[in-house]
Amino acid sequence: MKPGVLGLLLALGMTATAAQAQTAPQTPAPAETPIVIGRSYALPSAVMGATREINVWLPPGYAGSGKTYPVLYVLDGGQDQDFHHISGLAQLGTVVGTTRDVIVVGIASVDRRNELALPTQDPELIARYPTQGHSDRFRRFLAEEVQPFVETRFRTSGETALMGESLAGLFVVETFLKEPQMFDAYVAVSPSLWWDGGELARQSGARLRDQSNDPRTLILTLGDEGPEMQAPMDVLTANLRDHALPGLSWSFTPRPTETHATIYHGAALDAFRKLYAVPTP
User: Fold this and answer.
1) CATH 1.25.40.10 fits 36-275, yes or no
2) Phi, psi at 23, each rounded to 5°
């Protein structure tokens, strides 16, 4: 074949290929929509002197049901804290029908030792955490601003629970001992009862003597976290046994295969199953 003919054929082939490429259907880009887990509210707080982040997850059928729902308040409940994995447990229970529908409210922390720890007399802790010790103020924030906001904006049944881990677990225990009427149920996962040398645990006997017999639930759990964590938990559980209250249902579950870093998700799932069990027919 002559070189000129070959060149002509190649040119024609390239032209045809280019024409086909121009006329071939283009694959459309995948549609993109955001995944909405819940809603975040910037709640102005006179108590805290700042706007605070409150995150809310509603059961899937909330909008059209007309029903009222229990509320689980989650400490360290920011979007970059524990809100997503705890609301995920609520979602799972709803989807598979293993737990009742519940509204999850996450209260974000900003300065955890300021907000979640009670005052200490330990000079080393004071020097290390100079802003520590204002848990009473944070409790007022929950009682006077967060709970009213939730109760007026959403269809709540009046059944409430407070959940937290580590320093937030310490806050849960302190609230249970000092203001037991604030919530119906308390879930403290690996509470930092070591704070202030275990003083809160030592005070628990006297606090329990002053409590009423109103029905409420306390769920405690601890991993393999050493004597500093275990010793004050032993003091607390001993006082709970010694000062039995007819209206109080409490439990302590050791989790020796878990650490402080791994315990929360499984412990929270167990708490969901206990607090929000689906009634048997």
Assistant:
1) no
2) -95, -10
